[in-house]
Each structure stands twice: as structure tokens, then as C-alpha cells.
Design brief:
The complex is a heterodimer of chains A (159) and B (413). Chain A is α+β, with helices and mostly antiparallel strands and 159 residues long. Chain A has a single domain, classed as Nuclear Transport Factor 2, Chain: A, CATH 3.10.450.50. Chain A has a six-stranded mixed β-sheet with strand order 2-1-6-5-4-3. In chain A, strand 3 and strand 4 form a beta hairpin. Chain B contains nine helices and 19 strands. In chain B, strand 8 and strand 9 form a beta hairpin. The radius of gyration of chain B is 23 Å and the shape is globular. The chains are: A alpha+beta (159), B alpha+beta (413). The structure holds FE2/S2 (inorganic) cluster and fe (ii) ion (FE2).
Chain lengths: 159, 413
């Protein structure tokens, strides 16, 4: 592995560390900034994914749609105070030239409610495409594939 | 011993909270409602195109297998082996080439649920085996009656249920027909675990009053307000309903704003940065942009703009419910229409802009009615009067009362 490759792996590691820290610290306004303008973001289940069914629980085809998601969560939607703790591991990169890469990773999300109730809320994998931009690595595509088809109560904060 | 439930004398405009929590009432519901003379949605006929295709689901909590038989017909039976009760189908769906075999002792059934063979029926070397008097035909899987309405397959265990089309009736049947106009194609499924009694979610889908109040996304963007033209059609029995809203034909904006500003602050400057996901077409051509329809006891059909979904409300205990969503399009949808349906699916489901609150509010009620003091307490359901007839407004709880009418009728309460 050459130095450039090692450097890139560290950069991508940082991207995921920052990404989940953003979600877990309720810095949602910063969340769309991890994506390029004409990105695709989709949350689906393994069941749909394997059957080739296109439905998304959240489906966005632009960064502006992600911004709308955040403003809706802040201004319109009603849900109980809650927070996530993401654990990401098993990052695998498949470079496509110097400035793009497919990335897959596993994640686990523990959700904690205001009264302290904690559950294992989600597990699954990210099937991503990242590209290098003037302001660093960004997601061009992020497909969140949940292992389970079931969501406990609701899915407000993105994954 | 718990007291027998006395329904309040005000009738359908009062509902004792106890019906959402009492385990004895819950058990009686499984029996009288879900195993009783009520048709329940099972699958889409098109999900089982080939003989040998099967899928599993539930009648209440009772596990059910649905198959496409060798005869080309759809069959349904209880997923419980006639021998010693093992689950016959373990997978949620699949295809079988040689009928259904129970893994425990290899009893085999055909796709209609008839027992075709018993392993070691004659014993081994003349010893053991079943008695001579044992008749295969007396030990099949318990069969459901199955009937279809526009490609939607329903089932019931009761011989007393009327024909499905009579059960649904013309008023609601025609409103199913306006949505299911082609060969359905599944776009994807999802499900939610709700920490509340199943009836709290049914009340919610029947409740036309809450939509623009709980779901402020609608109100803010004027997708739908109670001041939009619309109404609710209710089956005479109260059992089924369809609420509908006309897009475009809106009230006067100023008056509507005034009404709503008394309720919650309007975000005048709140605009979507990319509203393309709401781009919709009037595919049915009647101007109705939103229709929520229910068939007693637990089936919901939704049309919100171009997002069409079936919802199945499965009881999982007195205070737990699984809400299954099946998003569909139609075989002849072009790519643009499929994209619209997928984009507008953002409105509903567990993360839906106008439905995530519904996943939580039932749980809030379930928590609030805890504690002995709620035992005798009742909800007050008087919006739009105390009757359960169709109304040309959505500022009413008439269809909620309709549900309680049908519920009490079925439960003898
Ligand atoms: S329980 Fe099914 S064969 Fe014995
Ligand atoms: Fe709702």
C-alpha cells in the first residue's frame, strides 16, 4: 500500500467519524454538507434491497432535499427528544481513480429516549460513493441498508 | 376478577380507555374480531403469480399461509401443523415444488392445505405407525375462506362472513376501485412497531380531524388543511370509511390562515428548497389529492397524491402493534410515474413527513392511560356531532364513531 493510499484511507475514516458525530450530536444543520449538490440518499431495508425494490424510507435526490428534511425535523415534525449513538466499522474502500471511491461499512445505532430508555435501534450497512471535492470528501451517493424491516415507532433523525 | 365492561350511555362518542389496555378484552377481540366474521387483507394476488408460490401473514395473531395452488387458485390456511402444532411455513415467502412439509415429523400437505402423507404411517417393520382408522382427509390444515377484490386478497375463518363484495359494499368498494386501477406492482415494504393497542392506530387513520393539526408539515405547505374541500364517506355499519380531500379547490387563503394562526404559528417564510418531491399528477382525474380508506377491522388503503400504499395493522398484544406498509405502483407506470411515487413516499411510512407522528401518538396515549385512574375514564369523540354518517367536512370524528359502532356490534358491548 503506497503512502497516497494510506492517506486516503485515513481521510475516508475521518469522513465517517465526522459524519456520525454530526448525527449523534444533533448538529443536523451540518448533515447536508457531507453531500454533493446532486447526491442520492436513500434508506432501505435488506429485504427491499435484495428483492430489487426501489422504495426508500427516506429518499432524496439533491442536497436541497436533505436540507428540507432537516428544516422539517426542526420546524414541522413532532417527535420525542431522542438521540443516536452510531458505531461504524469494517470500512472497505474500492477506489475508482484518485478522486472517487465506493465505500461500504457496517453500522450499529443505539437510540436513547429522554427517559433513558435505550434500544438497539438499527443495524446495517452503508453502500456509498464518495468523491473528492475542493472542500474535501463528500458523499455522491449514500444507500443505507437496514438489516431489519422493522422500525421501532418512527425514524426521524437520519442514519 | 375484572368487572365486565359497561359501555357508557353516550354510546359511540365515549370510549372507555380500558378497551386499549385490558388483556381480557384483547383476547376477546382476537376471537370475535380477527377470528370472527370479518374479512382481513392477506396479500396482493399478483404477489403469488405461479402455482407453488407462498407467503405468510396473520389473521390477528394467528399465523396464516397463503398459496397459489396447482389449480391456479389462491388458498389460505392456518400455519399450524395438524400433528403437534409446529409452524409449517418458516419463511415469510417463497416457492415450493412439492407442497408444504412440516419439518418436525415430515407430515406433508398440498398447496390447498390437505394432508397428503404422514411419515412412517405404517410404522417400521410392522411395528408402530398410525392406527388403521387414521384418515388423512380428517387432518388437513385449518382452511380460510378466500376472496378477492380488485386484486386484493382477503381471508376469514368464519363461515358467517357475507361475500367479500357485500362486506365492503359499494360506497367503499368504488373508492378502492378509483385507486387500484391497474395491475399492482410492489415498490417496497416496511413496517413499524407501535407501542400501543391496535385500535389506537385504527382510530388515528379514521380521524380526519387530526391530520392538519398533528402533522404540521401539511398545514405549513398548504398540502392539506381542514379548510380544503373534502369529506368523509362512511359505510352504514360504521365499519369502513374513506376520507378525501380535493386539491386546488381550496378555501380562501386569508380565512384559512386566520383559523390556523389561532392554533399554531404559521411559518410564512418556511419554504422547501427543493419541492420537486411533491410534483404530482392527477392520475385518477377526479381532483382528489388525498384519500385514506379503511376496511374493518385492520386494513387501510392510502392515496396521498401519487403515493399509494396498503397498510395492515396487526395486533401483537394489548399494547403492541405492527404496522405494515406495502407501497405499490402499477404495471403500466412509466419511469416518471414510478419516480413520483418513490419521491412522494417521503410523506408516509416510519420517516414520513406527514405520518411519523402517527407512529408516536398512539404510544403517548397508551402511556397516558396507565394508572388505575384511567380505568373508568373515557375519551370524548364529539367533533361533528355524535352520529357516524358520511359528512362533507373533515372537521369531524364521524368515522371514528363509526369504528366504535362496528366494534361494539362485533364485541357485543
Ligand atoms: S408437528 Fe408437524 S409433523 Fe409433527
Ligand atoms: Fe396522521
Amino acid at each position: 500500500m503506497d503512502l497516497a493510499e494510506i492517506g486516503r484511507r485515513l481521510e475516508l475514516q475521518d469522513l465517517y467519524t465526522d459524519y456520525v458525530a454530526c448525527l449523534d450530536t444533533d448538529a443536523l444543520e451540518r448533515w447536508p454538507e457531507f453531500f454533493i449538490e446532486d447526491c442520492v440518499y436513500r434508506i432501505t431495508s435488506a429485504e427491499n434491497h435484495e428483492a430489487g425494490l426501489p422504495l426508500g424510507l427516506i429518499y432524496a435526490t439533491s442536497k436541497n432535499m436533505l436540507k428540507d428534511r432537516v428544516s422539517a425535523l426542526r420546524e414541522a415534525n413532532i417527535y420525542e427528544p431522542q438521540c443516536y449513538r452510531h458505531l461504524v466499522s469494517g470500512l472497505r474502500t474500492e477506489p475508482d481513480g484518485l478522486d472517487a471511491s465506493d465505500v461500504t461499512a457496517s453500522f450499529l445505532v443505539v437510540r436513547t429516549m429522554q427517559d433513558g430508555a435505550m434500544i438497539l435501534f438499527a443495524a446495517g450497512r452503508y453502500l456509498d460513493r464518495v468523491v473528492r471535492t475542493a472542500s474535501g470528501w463528500k458523499f455522491a451517493r449514500k444507500i443505507v441498508v437496514l438489516d431489519s424491516r422493522r422500525i421501532d415507532t418512527l425514524l426521524a433523525i437520519p442514519l | 376478577m375484572p368487572q365486565a365492561l359497561e359501555w357508557p350511555q353516550q354510546g359511540n362518542s365515549r370510549v372507555p380507555y380500558r378497551v386499549f389496555a385490558d388483556p381480557d378484552i384483547y383476547r376477546a377481540e382476537l376471537d370475535r374480531i380477527f377470528l370472527g366474521a370479518n374479512w382481513q387483507y392477506l396479500v396482493l394476488a399478483d404477489e403469488l403469480p405461479e402455482p407453488g408460490d407462498y407467503k405468510t401473514t396473520f389473521l390477528g395473531e394467528t399465523p396464516v399461509i397463503v398459496t397459489r395452488g396447482e389449480d391456479g387458485e389462491i388458498h389460505a390456511m392456518v400455519n399450524r401443523c395438524a400433528h403437534r402444532g409446529n409452524l409449517v411455513c418458516l419463511k415469510s415467502q417463497g416457492h415450493t415444488k412439492d407442497g408444504l412439509t412440516c419439518v418436525y415429523h415430515a407430515w406433508r400437505y398440498d398447496l390447498a392445505g390437505n394432508l397428503t402423507s404422514v411419515a412412517f404411517r405404517r410404522g417400521v417393520a410392522g411395528k408402530g405407525g398410525m392406527a388403521e382408522s387414521f384418515r388423512l382427509e380428517e387432518h388437513g390444515l385449518r382452511k380460510l375462506r378466500v376472496d378477492q377484490f380488485g386484486g386484493l386478497v382477503f381471508g376469514t375463518l368464519s363461515p358467517d362472513a357475507p361475500a367479500l363484495s357485500d362486506y365492503i359494499g359499494n360506497l367503499i368498494g368504488s373508492r378502492i376501485g378509483r385507486v387500484i386501477r391497474g395491475k399492482p406492482k410492489i415498490l417496497g415494504t416496511t413496517s413499524q412497531i407501535l407501542h400501543n393497542n391496535w385500535k389506537l392506530y385504527i382510530e388515528n387513520t379514521k380521524d380526519t380531524y387530526h391530520a392538519s393539526l398533528l402533522h404540521t408539515f401539511f398545514t405549513t405547505f398548504r398540502i392539506s388543511r381542514l379548510t380544503n374541500t373534502g369529506g368523509v364517506a362512511i359505510a352504514e355499519s360504521g365499519a369502513h370509511h374513506a376520507s378525501y380531500t380535493y386539491g386546488g379547490k381550496t378555501d380562501d387563503k386569508a380565512a384559512s390562515d386566520r383559523l390556523y394562526s389561532e392554533i399554531h404559528s404559521l411559518h410564512e417564510d418556511y419554504r422547501l428548497q427543493d419541492p420537486r418531491f411533491l410534483d404530482s399528477v392527477d392520475e385518477i382525474g377526479d381532483g382528489v389529492t388525498l384519500q385514506i380508506l379503511s376496511v374493518f377491522p385492520n386494513f387501510v388503503l392510502q392515496q396521498i397524491h401519487n403515493s399509494i400504499a396498503l397498510r395492515l395493522v396487526l395486533p401483537k398484544g394489548p399494547d403492541e402493534t405492527e404496522l405494515q406498509w406495502i407501497f405499490i405502483g402499477f404495471e403500466d407506470d412509466d419511469e416518471a410515474m414510478t419516480e413520483r411515487r418513490l419521491q412522494q413516499a417521503n410523506l408516509v411510512g416510519p420517516a414520513g413527513y406527514v405520518s411519523m407522528e402517527d407512529g408516536a401518538v398512539g404510544g403517548f396515549i397508551q402511556r397516558a392511560i396507565k394508572g388505575g385512574d384511567a380505568e373508568g375514564a373515557c375519551s370524548v369523540i364529539e367533533m361533528g356531532g355524535v352520529e357516524h354518517a358520511s359528512q362533507e367536512t373533515r372537521a369531524t370524528e364521524a368515522s371514528v364513531r363509526g369504528f366504535w359502532q362496528a366494534y361494539r356490534q362485533t364485541m357485543g358491548l
